[in-house]
Amino acid sequence: MLRHRPFVLWGADHLIVLGVLAAGVVLALTVGRRLPPHADDTWRRATAMALGINEGLSWFLATAAGEILIPLQLCDLALFFAIWSLWSPRAWRCELAYFWAMAGSVQAIMTPDLAYGFPDYWWMKFFAGHVGVVLSAVYLAATGRVEATHRSIWRVWAWSNVYVAAAALLNWSFGTNYGYLARKPMQPSLLDYFGPWPWYILAVEVLALASFYVYYAPFVIGRRWARHVT
How many CA atoms lie within 13 A of 175 on its CB side? Predict the structure, then answer.
């Protein structure tokens, strides 16, 4: 498959993606609740299909090139729950989609583990999927599908650690690097500031819990504001 120039962190193409993400978040927050039910349903399911097609195409192309993609990174789970929640919203899966997207996919967008920049196919696939997941999570929250409470933080953190345990077992058995638990990404990331293996894993545990509280804060503020205005 044709490759292009190396990916540059905070390069022009990366900054454009971040700008698109910021604009999309504003749009999701301002337009989300104003859509009539039929338009909301159409938008959710069309987005779910687009995310699924984007992922399915990458599997097909990788298989055609002799590679096997096994989607077991945490961002892959965020994608799965985002698609499922968009197609059929339920509070518990919207909750997982929201927190995993905001804590995981946002970080992946900020410090992507990519070898090549635009217009490499895998660059486009990566950002289309990750940006789509984050915007889907914001939309689900903006339209009241995410019913986050203080217990949600610990519930999602517990499920995250179930994933960590499963990923660690797979890494030990097959020499993989799911969850970046075996080694750090090839590109610069926050993990570079958290010391060597395995200490950076402990730091990520704390950071994940802290980030869940950060992304829970808008719900606390929104509820207090609603009580104030009423």
Answer: 0
